[in-house]
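Need residues for this backbone.
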């Protein structure tokens, strides 16, 4: 009897020891994974938060961490961003879901797949992870939840097939650069005094720099680039903006040349680059004058391959991502 009791204790001890050892191989809810450190400026914080990733997905070096690291690398390869990598701090907040997946019948953490995401929880956990309120968020679902930008959060599907477009348009464009969509051109409204005031006010705070209600090359917001060497395609082109009829507003380069309109462009116009650059400099606490931008932008004028062929390798696929559905 004593022998059996001792054997039982030994086996139990081995099981407990094995569990404790294995538990060190997994992240737990609340853990922070550091993905990229900043060395310049205030540190522009980016937090990745995932939902629908269970304990096995959250193994160290597993599905969740691997996709977070690839997202960070894709972001740091974006135009303009790639030249200021040292200004960004990127981390991932771990949330271990009870079940895998992002669908209405799946038990996950942030209500993903139901009527409304738990935005308050997403934002509060992002602030906790970043250690400050000034942070931008990538919310990643383990499955297909669409892709869009909402305030300071960009929603991302882990099985998105065209990851580069999502990153350059939704996150780098909308969230970091605070750029508008340029494909809205079927509005019925007209430019009135309120529209003009809105655009002028946005110019003052460094937004909507690629749009103007003026059409005179001598007074349009980007007049300093018209006729400047290296900026031969900069002019005054018709554009739309949400409810405004196409052609009543104007932009610096043809509106369909930008990735904010065309998902095959992978290109930011000069004023989009200027706005993105300004947002980075301002958040990093660095000088952001027009002269400094022109001095910096020389690096972009030397780029001839706007097809972004070298970056297509960042459009990875991952067969481990959940792709199920349930009724």
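Answer:
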């Amino acid at each position: 009897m004593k022998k059996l009791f001792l054997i039982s204790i030994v086996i139990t001890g081995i099981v407990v020891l094995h569990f404790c050892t294995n538990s060190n191989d997994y992240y737990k809810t609340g853990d922070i994974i550091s993905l990229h450190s900043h060395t310049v400026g205030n540190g522009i914080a980016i937090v990745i938060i995932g939902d629908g990733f269970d304990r096995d997905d959250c193994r160290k070096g597993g599905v969740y961490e691997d996709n977070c690291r690839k997202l960070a690398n894709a972001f740091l390869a974006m135009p303009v961003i790639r030249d200021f990598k040292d200004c960004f701090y990127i981390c991932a907040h771990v949330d271990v879901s009870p079940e895998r997946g992002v669908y209405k019948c799946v038990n996950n953490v942030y209500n993903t797949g139901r009527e409304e995401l738990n935005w308050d929880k997403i934002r509060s956990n992002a602030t906790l992870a970043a250690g400050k309120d000034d942070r931008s968020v990538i919310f990643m679902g383990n499955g297909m939840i669409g892709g869009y930008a909402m305030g300071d959060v960009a929603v991302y599907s882990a099985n998105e097939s065209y990851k580069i477009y999502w990153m350059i348009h939704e996150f780098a464009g909308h969230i970091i650069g605070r750029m508008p969509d340029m494909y809205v051109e079927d509005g019925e409204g007209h430019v009135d005094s309120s529209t003009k005031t809105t655009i002028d006010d946005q110019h003052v705070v460094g937004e909507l720099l690629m749009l103007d209600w003026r059409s005179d090359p001598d007074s349009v917001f980007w007049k300093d680039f018209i006729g400047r060497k290296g900026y031969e395609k900069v002019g005054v082109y018709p554009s739309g903006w949400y409810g405004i009829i196409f052609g009543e507003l104007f932009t610096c380069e043809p509106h369909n040349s930008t990735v904010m309109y065309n998902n095959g462009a992978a290109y930011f116009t000069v004023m989009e680059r200027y706005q993105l650059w300004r947002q980075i400099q301002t958040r990093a606490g660095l000088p952001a004058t027009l002269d400094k931008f022109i001095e910096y932008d020389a690096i972009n004028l030397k780029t001839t391959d706007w097809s972004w062929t070298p970056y297509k390798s960042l459009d990875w696929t991952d067969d481990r991502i959940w792709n199920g559905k349930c009724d």
